[in-house]
Amino acid sequence: MNNCAIYPGTFDPVSLGHVDVVRRGLRLFDRVVIGVAENPGKHPVFDLDTRVQLVQATFTGEPGVEIVPFSGLLVQLAQQHHASAILRGLRAASDFEYEFQMATMNRRLDSEIETVFVMAREDYTFVSSRFIREIASMGGDVASLVPAPVLPLLKQISTRSG
User: Fold this and answer.
1) Number of domains present in the structure of the chain
2) Which domain holds residue 39?
């Protein structure tokens, strides 16, 4: 049995909540492949290459973690990496309906790939990349919400909007 999970996201930017989900996922899986989605529909602030670089800088030296950019179907990414599961974090009950629909659709596309939900730690239930971007753009302190490699780029957002 393959013990690999795909953790997909836009990661615009990567947050400490994301880091927590990956590290907890590593307790369940030997390998976690972080799929950084192109996702142009979300109009990311950071381009794909920058988001991949920030995730790589965040997980440098972390055994069992691989970072890959992707576009297209998530199940195809899982198949390419021989993953047995898709790892997803849930912050609140409001996340569940969307995630349940995605898990159901992914199961229809490939019945061999399971979705595993990890509940966010209490410290991160309110953290979202959107809130981080908004706070940073207004000059707010987000140092307790993001990994150190992300801070310089978020300060640039503040400078551009201010």
Assistant:
1) 1
2) 4-122
Q: Is 137 a catalytic residue?
A: no
Tally of CB atoms within 10 A around 124? 19
Q: Give the side-chain half-sphere CA count within 13 A for 131.
A: 14
Whether 130 maps to a domain, the answer reads no
Is 154 inside a domain boundary?
no
133 labelled catalytic: no
* Residue 71 annotated in active site: no
Give the predicted TM-score (pTM) of the model: 0.92
Specify if 147 maps to a domain: no
Query: Is the model's pLDDT at 40 over the cut of 80?
Result: no
Instruction: Find the catalytic residue in 18, 31, 88, 133.
Output: 18
Q: Is residue 24 flagged as an active site residue?
A: no
- Any idea what the Cα angle at residue 58 is, between residues 5 and 70, rounded to 5°? 50
Q: What's the mean per-residue pLDDT of the chain?
A: 91
The CATH number given to whatever domain includes residue 32 is 3.40.50.620
Distance, in Å, from the CA atom of 104 to the CA atom of 64, rounded to the nearest integer, reads: 27
